[in-house]
Amino acid sequence: MWINVIPCEPGRHRLGSFADYNTLQDASKTHMPSPLQLIRVSASAARHFVQSLLQKYNVPSQNGAIVAKCLVEADLRGVDSHGINRIPSYLARIRQKVLDPSVSPVVNKITPVVTQIDAQNGFGFIAANEAMNTAIKIAQVYGIGMVSFSPIRLPHYRSGVERINSWAYPPIACGAPAGENSIPFILDMCPSIAARGKIYKALRRGDQIPPGWALDKDGLPTTDPASALKGVMLPMGGAKGSALSIMMDVFSGHVINPHDPSEPADVGHFFVAIKPDLFMTLEEFKGRMDYLYVGPWNVRR
């Protein structure tokens, strides 16, 4: 039996989710085994569940809260390939002793605007949270803050960018604050055609993946998720996507480790926070963000 747990918050719709039980039942005919049971839980209950699991694996409560918040937020946004279903893989890595659940990042200030963080082979969520908060604090004073961390949000008025090195296709994330009549701009993607998490999702559900997503270990096109996980993802835009990946690796370091869940995820991250009023007033910046937001929405469809 498949049990689909959907975290939800009052008054908040989960983008990309099944709207109700009937819709879910219809979708299950083609996408999931039957019978299917839908369980709805509150976001707070989902966070508590994740934190409770992590505490049993010696994850400090404050660190568990950060991990739980990130995973449940992904589910609430409809990106369930990166939600709480990732927990089993994290716990497996802890049991295999390739992820240290109890460590805290070590911060090393290099210059007034540059900081390096040693993640101590702990949860990336924790080091990333420390890195972004550090970059924001630096930017509040100097206008720009840069932080890198290895191995391996946007509630503040900062433009931010994150790059991760991991051959082949490292993700890139960017955020800019909203204007008076718009919402924050948030980009979070990898330059592959699809995220690796979607391959795992297809494998769990017994689905095939679309043609053109991946190659198997012999370099042949495949629609089988198990074969894809043993091979490579394909880049978006062909050579341009590969070039973008190489550029991001230059930014985030040359510490490259093949994807192997039984080994430490030895990858680097690079964070930048920039005050939006460095080159113009904050009001001007907000006006430009409103223009960027309203323009596309007013395009005739």
TrEMBL record:
Q: Domain of life of the organism in this record?
A: Eukaryota
UniProt keyword Nucleus present:
no
Cite the GO molecular-function annotations of the record: oxidoreductase activity
Name the InterPro entries for this protein: Mal/L-sulf/L-lact_DH-like_ah, Mal/L-sulf/L-lact_DH-like_NADP, Mal/L-sulfo/L-lacto_DH-like_sf, Malate/L-lactate_DH-like
User: Which UniProt keywords are present, listed alphabetically?
Assistant: Oxidoreductase
Q: Does the keyword Oxidoreductase apply?
A: yes
**Per the similarity annotation, which family is this?**
Belongs to the LDH2/MDH2 oxidoreductase family.
Protein known as? Ureidoglycolate dehydrogenase
What is the scientific name of the source organism?
Answer: Coccidioides immitis RMSCC 3703
